[in-house]
Every structure is written in C-alpha cells, then in structure tokens.
Amino acid sequence: MQKQGLELKQTQRLSPLQIQTIKLIELPVQELEQKIRAELEENPVLDDSPDPERQQDDEPKDISIDEIKDDGEIPSYKTRINNWGKDPRPEYSTFSVRESFTESLMDQLGYRNLSQRDYAIGTFIIGSLDGDGYLRRDIGSLVDDMAFRAGIEVDEAEVEKMLAVIQEFDPPGVGARDLRECLLLQLKNRKQSEEVRDAYRILNEQFQEFTNRHFGKVMSRLALDEARLKAAIGCITRLNPAPGGSLEDSYAEQARQIVPDFVLEEHDGELSFTMPRFNIPELRVNKKYSEMITDARSSGDRAQKEAATFIRQKIDSAKWFIEALKQRQNTLQRTMQAILDFQHDYFLDGDDAQLKPMVLKDIAEQTGFDISTISRVVNSKYIETHFGIFPLKYFFSEGMENKEGEEVSTRELKKALQDCVDSEDKKKPLTDEQLVTEMEKRGYKVARRTIAKYRGQLGIPLARWRKEL
User: What is the tens place of the pLDDT at every residue in 91-100?
Assistant: First the structure.
C-alpha cells in the first residue's frame, strides 16, 4: 500500500545582493575597476563625480555578507561608497606572474630568426608537448596532423629540424620523446666534467642495464670503477625528469601585470595593511533621479510614470551595487586582518620557518565567514610586503587529517615524507607504496598518488634513482 503525505523542506536561497557581493569578492582589484566602469556606463543613476553634500559616514559598516538581508529599502548611508585608499592615485607596484610553460617556449621561438613556415611548424610542435615538456607523439603523426588541422604540408625532415631547435630551449630537456632523450639533452647543457661524460655514456650506451640496476655490467662494459659510477649516478639523479614542471607551479598562469590588493606596512614591529584604491572611483546615486521619480508620481502622465518605474529599477540596482562594494571591502579587510594575525611572526620578516600551518577553516573561524567566502577572497588576490609580492594562496596549506582526525598541513606531511626518505636504507630505497606504509606508521594516512605528488614537489627521485651501491 502506498502512502501519500506532504514533506516540508527548508532551503536557503541567496538574495540578489548576496549573489552580487559574492561575484565582486572574487574579483581582483584590476577586474573590479573594469566592473565598476561597466556599471557606470550601463546605469545612468550611478555617479562617480564628487558629491558636495557628502556626509562623513562613508566608512564601511561591519556587516558579514553571510548576514545580508534582502528586505526592501536600503538606508541612505548605503547609497554612497567611499572606496579605500588615502591617495586617489598613488604610485603602486606591479609584477608579472610567472609565465606559463607554453608561453615561455613561444617567446624563445620568437627570438629565433625563422621563416614563417618554420615558425608555424615550431608553434605546432610546442602545442603538441605535454605538461611535463615531452613530445609523446611520433613525427609521422605530427606531419599528418599539420596537414589536416593546420593546412601545412611538411615532411618529417622539416619537423625533425624544428624539434631540434626547440630542444635547445630552456628548460633543458624540453621536447624530448622519452626519459632517456630528456636526460641526455640536459647533460649536453652541462659543463663537460668527467662525471657528466660518464653519465652521458651510461644513458647513451647502457640505459637498459642502468635502469635495471645491473651496475656490474655497466662498470664492466664502460670500464668504470665504483667511485666513478657513483659520481655518474649522482649526476643523473640531479637531472629533472619533467622539465615542463619547472615553469609550472600552483600559481602559474598566463603572464600578466598584477596589482596588489593589499599593501603590508610595518612600523616598529607593528603590522598593518592598506587596500590601495588606484583607479576605483567613489560612487553614489545621483539625487536628480530621485527628484524625477517624485515629479513623475505627482504627474498623471502615463509615460512619465513608466519612466519613473524604469528609474526606480535603476536606482535599486545602483543601491545594491554600492552596498555589494561595501560588503566586498569589509569582507576583504576582515579576512586579510585574520591572515595577518594568524601569520604575524612570518609577516615581520618573511622567514618561511615562521609560516604556521593554516587552512581556510582557520580563517573562517576567526572571521565568522563561510569557508567558501574565504576561498573567494583568497583567489587571485595579492599582497605587497617589504620582502616581496605574494598571492594569498601562498600562506595556506592543504588540509589533511592524521590518524587521530586532526588537521595537518602539507608542509608537515612533506617534512614527514622527507624524513622517511632521509632515514631509508639507500641500498634498498622505499618505493611509493612502501612510503605510504611508513607514513601511516608516523600517523599520516596518505594515498600513493599523494606521495608521488609530494615527492615530485620535494625533488625526490623515484626509488630506483635513489639506490646507492
């Protein structure tokens, strides 16, 4: 027998103001400036000219965006915003975010004196490299692809010639078709000492025996003693098996000019920060439109009343936009202050040893904001300090749990992993699977793929490359 009944569910819907505030919070200062300019163009009610009657109540109200109510009229103080910054047009610092791997290669290609045809071939090859910098496809398939996808009829010799050019680019090893070629390319760029020459011969002539750890055969066939073999192996293990990763990190993106959203100030050990205003104008609702609505309401003309309705909508939109800007400013201020308080010792001199484990949850608890709000603030925001310009992401670590269920930072996990490797038997180095077990013994539950990721970030080679005689 089927039962019928009513089920009540309570759902939370974001108000238009909350949605707009969330969108503004995500924007870095340069994109915020563009957004404000666009709003000024689209909404005639918004005014960025000085208001002679402006009251001194323009400081942002201490209101959480999580508490915003969309309940009708907005008080008059919310119809103006005096954007942050003491100087309307201060001098400010910019810097270029580290360029992407592909863009770096394209820049180097542009420096070569190439024909238009060779440049097109080189561009296609660069676009075919994977994230580690390898060309994983055979030359024949590239020739076919260029014909079908780019309309360029080439032969394999032309592609080989341009690949050789790209293999001369930085980082060394780029454009290799396998690990052996990648390592050999790097050795060609080294000063040709005895250990480098020995390493080159090992990889060039005895690669299979070397990777299978048949060191006796390698020494015999190349007439090397144990000391020279150890030196050559040490040289090989210092090479980079993934050259593409040397230009890609957690903050890598297309090169562009960055304007810091915050500027750190330090006076006699006291830390504070400002939020530079740059080209962001002060906004207010132009009062003449309110007067037009009053005049229209007293008129019996239908066209004027329709115009008044349109103006009313524009005024409401302007008020919400101004209030959303206030909430963005307040949210960024409170979040940055919480980060500054949490990492106080680090911000004094930039000593990484003073950088405490910190996750989004820590700042959410200090500010009272939701974790998603903190994430939006941190994204694409930068702070200028007396020791450099940093993305706010830099001060956070990924959160993982130990066996007690306590949250630990990636820095702590990486230190534990490094300790495991440092204490291993170098004649029988630990594989990634064995490192998982060792980490569990130390109280950290980490997946094998995470071990591989952290090992790569720490520059720790695979077990077979760490083996010593």
Answer: 444 444 445 6
